[in-house]
Amino acid sequence: MKTNKLLYLATPYTAFKGSREEAYHLACLKAAELMEEGYTVFSPIAHSHSIETEAGWHPKKGDWWLKQDFGILAYCDELWVYKLPGWDTSYGVAEEIKFAKSYDIPVKEIEYA
User: Fold this and answer.
1) How many CB atoms sit inside 10 A of residue 75's CB?
2) How confident is the model at residue 64 (pLDDT cuts 50, 70, 90)?
3) What is the domain partition of the chain in residue ranges?
4) The domain 6-111: what is its CATH number?
5) pLDDT in tens, 7-51
């Protein structure tokens, strides 16, 4: 499938029912899968986890990262929510959905198998 859509891949991080490293790993794998399918993908967890780790920061608060993420999400064609365990209780995912809806960005949920 060839597409010019820019997808924002929302996944839980601190609410993930596992470690942050595992949440990062699964976000990277799903982003790679979607890229292989022809999508252009921004995954905030794949992007920010490595920056936070390499910078040696204590985990930054969600709102700090959301400012960064919303700057990209505003330009995305769709928000795809990867329903990893904890997605439904994730503050960040909920805020991303709310932001997308306020900008009329379509939201799609994708199952985790």
Assistant:
1) 11
2) confident
3) 6-111
4) 3.40.50.10400
5) 999 999 888 988 889 999 999 999 999 999 999 999 999 987 676
